[in-house]
Amino acid sequence: ETGVTQSPTHLIKTRGQQVTLRCSSQSGHNTVSWYQQALGQGPQFIFQYYREEENGRGNFPPRFSGLQFPNYSSELNVNALELDDSALYLCASSSGLAGGSYNEQFFGPGTRLTVL
Amino acid sequence: GESVGLHLPTLSVQEGDNSIINCAYSNSASDYFIWYKQESGKGPQFIIDIRSNMDKRQGQRVTVLLNKTVKHLSLQIAATQPGDSAVYFCAENREGGTSYGKLTFGQGTILTVHP
Questions:
Q1: Under a CB-based contact definition with an 8 Å cutoff, are residues B22 and B89 in contact?
Q2: Dihedral angle of Cα B106, A78, A66, A3, to the nearest 10 degrees
Q3: Of B90, B83, B89, B87, residue with least CA distance to B113
Q4: Strands (E), chain A
């Protein structure tokens, strides 16, 4: 296991509702990235948090928002849920930004969100 | 952005055979590439990586080849085992600057290994 945990495991919501997903990063990791994985597709980058600040965003609307806490755990919030938001939401943690040097990202098991 | 399809390519092999999984990447500025394995109900798991200043890198039973001229990446798995059955994704990243750690994933390939 990677040491990255996510909750809840599964979630069912209806269109228009709001949802909050949680991620606990691996010990010592200060960077968390969130990805959306639709069925049969590769993960798509949503945004990244580094030391409690958003550090880049993919092609997702503002109703996708996030937070990172002082202990580096993170939340992903989605407002006004749409049917197409049904997906596996993955978070990945890494040991931080290092100029020009990649630090491996460790993925959690994901939260399966179903929007009806 | 990348294009993704709704139907993943599939590769079916016999146990003990060698497997080759291919990937075309889109961003010529990408300088770091990773292969991930994703089993059902789990998040992607790191297999091997390669930087753009290399064209080959070997790990345990796995080899990654990079052809920057045609923006092509391949993963070779030697002596494939049933436990290798999974979906395999390539991912690209541009190191440094604001693109750090923001992976762009490929379509994925379903590998099935028959005993």
A1: no
A2: -60
A3: B83
A4: 5-7, 10-13, 19-24, 31-37, 44-50, 53-57, 64-68, 74-78, 87-94, 106-107, 111-115
Please list the residues that pair with B105 across neighbouring strands: B91
Q: What is d(CA A43, CA B79) in angstroms, rounded to the nearest whole number? A: 28
Number of H helices, E strands in chain B: 0, 10
The answer to whether the bond into B44 is cis (omega within 30° of 0) is no
pLDDT at residue A76 tops 60: yes
A66 shares contact with chain B (CB less than 8 Å): no
Q: How does the average pLDDT of chain B come out, rounded?
A: 88
Which residues of B fall within a CB distance of 8 Å from A107? 36, 43-45
Q: How far apart are CA A112 and CA A99, in angstroms?
A: 34
Q: Is the CB of residue B42 less than 8 Å away from at least one CB of chain A?
A: yes
Partner B contacted by A42 (CB < 8 A) = yes
Q: What is the pLDDT of residues B12-39, one digit of tens each?
A: 999 999 999 999 988 888 888 999 999 9
